[in-house]
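Figure 3 (text version): structure tokens given as input.
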């Protein structure tokens, strides 16, 4: 029950009832979630989020040693928020790495445990191309965890190769792919999706692909793009659909809210969320996504300073060392133009807020405590 000395945080009866429900470990429903998200002061959200974080992860804050590979920025789709993709006919601004170039990049990074591979949807890089790439990576680094291809890329690959999601994912798994990243989810609500990314995989397809991966013992992550034209009700709807699938499969490792960045895209007129909005969204995620073990702040996108603040608002994971291998966010105007952090820097960032830095593998096994 709510301790008396907290009543100054929660004067309103409805909010107090919701708070008591959370404190007694009961799940809050969509209506309660919406009320909490819209009405609670961030001090209350932070308090509740931290309680949950502590119960799930103690004072541990996770990071991993990884690089990103973005094989191409050529893309057949036209998401309005994307600053990164180029059409095939604008090839001078695009890049296409060869498999040899990708292997050379991986060879340069000897101490990473994970490679994250996500790029544009190139009409000529299909399922068999990527199966071969994955085999080549596993040949030189059999133990490297390969987290690859958003549901958007997978939907296109499987459709073009005329195989079911299950067949396609099985082939990728046999080649050596270990898990799926969480991208491409954006916002599940149909009317918003129609306005920001109408030509790529649908909500139903995104959820089906992740469900199928979980069935094949390929875990995955989940994301949500926030801070553009969505309303609070769409955020609750998005999180509820993920929470429902997680109840069914328990295959998601982490939830990653992705803050919309407004540089160089077709929605640049939209103002970015404030830091208060970020804190509200992240701490609410920790409270509402009660069956997700981890909530990740992806630091190259949200910036180092905000990431550090979020560690005091329920966040227990900040992703990885990256080593300047991603362009998606710097092209969209994120603070980190050449994102890389040494292990020492990450450890310091976490220790500075009184948390315990843990180097993890992709599946959150502890590799080293600092
Ligand atoms: O789906 C694109 C987002 C995602 C913008 O699983 C933008 O560990 C903000 O999924 N502003 C791809 N976001 C990246 C992704 C990801 C990143 C880090 C870790 C993991 C993981 C997954 O990037 C896209 C889209 O939602 N995005 N443009 C933009 N202007
Ligand atoms: Fe293509 Fe992904 Fe950009 Fe959409 S977000 S245009 S699918 S690269």
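Below: residues designed for each position.
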């Amino acid at each position: 029950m709510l301790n008396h000395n907290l009543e100054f945080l929660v004067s309103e009866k409805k909010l107090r009832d919701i708070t008591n429900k959370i404190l007694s470990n009961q799940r809050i429903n969509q209506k309660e979630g919406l009320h909490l998200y819209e009405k609670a002061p961030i001090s209350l959200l932070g308090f509740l989020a931290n309680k949950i974080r502590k119960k799930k992860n103690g004072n541990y804050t996770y990071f991993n040693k990884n690089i990103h590979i973005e094989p191409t920025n050529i893309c057949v789709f036209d998401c309005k928020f994307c600053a990164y993709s180029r059409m095939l006919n604008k090839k001078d601004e695009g890049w296409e790495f060869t498999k040899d170039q990708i292997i050379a990049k991986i060879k340069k990074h000897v101490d990473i445990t994970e490679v994250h591979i996500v790029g544009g949807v190139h009409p000529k890089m299909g399922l068999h191309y990527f199966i071969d790439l994955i085999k080549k990576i596993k040949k030189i680094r059999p133990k490297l965890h390969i987290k690859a291809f958003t549901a958007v890329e997978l939907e296109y690959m499987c459709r073009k190769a005329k195989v079911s999601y299950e067949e396609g994912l099985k082939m990728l798994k046999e080649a050596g792919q270990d898990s799926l990243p969480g991208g491409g989810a954006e916002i599940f609500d149909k009317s918003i999706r129609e306005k920001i990314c109408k030509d790529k995989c649908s909500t139903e397809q995104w959820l089906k692909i992740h469900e199928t991966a979980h069935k094949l013992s390929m875990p995955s992550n989940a994301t949500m793009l926030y801070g553009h034209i969505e309303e609070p009700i769409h955020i609750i709807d998005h999180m509820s659909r993920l929470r429902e699938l997680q109840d069914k499969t328990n295959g998601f490792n982490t939830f990653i809210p992705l803050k919309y960045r407004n540089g160089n895209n077709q929605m640049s007129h939209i103002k970015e969320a404030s830091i208060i909005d970020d804190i509200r969204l992240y701490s609410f995620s920790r409270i509402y996504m009660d069956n997700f073990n981890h909530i990740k702040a992806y630091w190259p996108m949200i910036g180092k300073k905000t990431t550090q603040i979020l560690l005091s608002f329920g966040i227990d994971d900040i992703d990885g060392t990256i080593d300047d291998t991603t362009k998606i966010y710097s092209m969209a105007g994120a603070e980190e133009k050449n994102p890389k952090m040494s292990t020492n820097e990450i450890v310091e960032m976490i220790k500075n807020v009184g948390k315990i830095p843990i180097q993890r593998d992709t599946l959150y096994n502890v590799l080293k405590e600092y």
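The chain is about 40% helix and 15% strand.
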